[in-house]
Amino acid sequence: WLATTSMRNALEEIRLVCLEVLPSSPVQGLPLLDAQALRVVDGLHQLCRSTLQAAHASFADLRGNPVVQIRRDVLGHLAEAEASLTDSGAPRGGPQRALLLAEEFEDFEAVVSLSASSDVSRLDDHMSKSESFRPHAFAHCLRQPQLHPLFFRLLRLFPPSSELLEELLLPYPELRWTLDMNGLDEASSQRQWSDVLESVKSLATKTVVNRRSSAVKRSTFAALATIAAAAIGRPDQEEDPCVAELAGLGRLQRFCHRFGKAEGGADERLGPTGPPLSTEECLASLCGCVREALITLRQEESEAQLLADAARLVNLTERGFSERRADLQALLPREPSSASAPITMSGGTRDAGVAHALQRLWAEVIMADEPIWKQVLEESRDSPKRELLIASTGFFRMLSWRSPSEKAKLFQAADSGALPRSAGLEELCAARPELRPFAPALRLGELQALSVARAPAR
Predict the structure, then answer these.
(1) Could you tell me which residues come within 8 angstroms of residue 366 by beta carbon, excluding any fewer than 6 positions away?
(2) Which of 408, 405, 371, 403 is nearest to 389 (CA)?
(3) Among 105, 38, 96, 42, CA closest to 73
(4) Could you read off the pLDDT of 138-166 as tens digits, one per residue?
(5) Which DSSP letter does residue 266 get?
(6) Could you tell me where the DSSP H helices lie in 90-240?
(7) What is the DSSP string of 15-35?
(8) What is the pLDDT of residues 219-273, one digit of tens each?
(9) Picking from 9-18, 355-364, 447-456, which range would have the lowest pLDDT averaged per residue?
């Protein structure tokens, strides 16, 4: 009867009335008010203890959901009430009544939180006496960012086994690498630094590959992997291609968030708190905003990263066709289509939709430099300025871009030095009539890029 819904609601209303009559914060210099507040809190303490005893007697299992919910509400109200007491009414200056009830009724999370705010030595005592309590304390500290400093303190005082530590930190890679670095100091040898940095790089790389829930975290760990590799002294040619590709996708997602919206109404996925976009989703989103982005960034003289990441995206997408053994060349549109036509990337038309998106990306990049291509057409054949103009275009820079690893040319198809198949001018100009006036200039750009792509890497 004491644990029925009606009784629980009635008891909660009484607790709320107690909270309403208490001052919202401690008031100094009013002894009568202090005495009245203390009597209210003492009465509330007795009510809370009786409520928890009734819940325990009714449900027996202190770990069961009904008891957990009742206990959370009761201890929260009591801790809030104690916070209104002055130092004279609050023993040791903190929520000791709530802490005692948390200990009696085995609310491990409340024990850790309340001890952290009022009596850390009491928490140390629990940790030293009960090894079974330690995993609960560590886990709760990890779940609460404000308790992370306490986690590292407890870790030093009561070090867990390596197996338990790995299990605890598995969902928190951002803390795992911090812990590794924390063991180093100025006296550490070069070998120790290298070993730890290798461990950090390996952890960051695994996190980049496996992180599916947060684009920001994936990008952060991609940057960490790059920093760790540089700290080790690893040359650029040994960069992890998977990390580089995923980092590029993350940057493109941020470009799309800044300059436009994803097609199909999925713009919320582009936000900093959204999940990472797939290669195809990133390609479709980029098609809708790359022209505006390039025009704006060119004015800021900061378009190089966007062009490099877009080139990597094209390579990644074309590699997907090769791995699926799909004929990209046959799927490229050869009939005029609207530049604003929606791109379908689902069902049986997925590959065709991706091929369409690749063509549209090249067309948008070319049209972003429309004034430059007009100048190229106006220049004489022997003019040295013409080559410089071509080299400044996004089309040429994407065609000729190479990975910093320099292990292989970025766009490497069946023949060494081949250019991206999706950038074939015959198909591009057939499907995009707006490009046809620039076909002679684009052909010059293609030849110039081909000569660069076939040149030996330096």
Answers:
(1) 373, 393, 394, 395, 428, 435, 438, 442
(2) 371
(3) 105
(4) 999 999 999 999 999 999 899 999 899 98
(5) -
(6) 96-104, 108-118, 120-129, 134-143, 148-157, 162-169, 173-182, 190-210, 215-232
(7) HHHHHHHS-SS--TT-HHHHH
(8) 888 888 888 888 887 655 456 788 888 889 989 999 998 887 544 444 555 565 6
(9) 447-456
Task: Report the phi/psi class of residue 319: left, alpha or beta, with left for phi > 0 and alpha for psi in -120 to 50.
Answer: alpha
The DSSP symbol for 349 reads G
In 58-167, beta strands by DSSP E: none
CA distances from 64 to 56, 58, 59, 68, 99 (A): 10, 11, 8, 6, 20
Residues near 102 by Cβ (< 8 Å), separated by ≥ 6?
Answer: 75, 110, 111, 114
Task: Find all residues with CB under 8 Å of 299, minimum gap 6, and list them.
Answer: none
- DSSP H or E stretch at residue 88: none
Backbone angles phi, psi at 418, to 5 degrees: -70, 150
Residues in the chain: 458
Give residue 306's Cα distance to chain centre: 20
Q: In one letter, which amino acid is 92?
A: R
pLDDT in tens, 89-129: 445 445 688 999 999 898 999 999 989 888 899 899 999 99
Within 10 angstroms of residue 98's Cβ, the number of other Cβ atoms is 27
Give the whole-angstrom CA distance, residue 224 versus residue 79. Answer: 41
* Rounded Cα distance, 214 and 410, in Å: 28
- Spell out the residues 6+ positions from residue 382 whose beta carbon is closer than 8 angstroms to its own: none
**Residue 149 CB-density burial (10 A; 0-12 exposed, 13-18 middle, 19+ buried):** exposed
In this predicted structure, the answer to whether residue 199 has a pLDDT above a threshold of 70 is yes
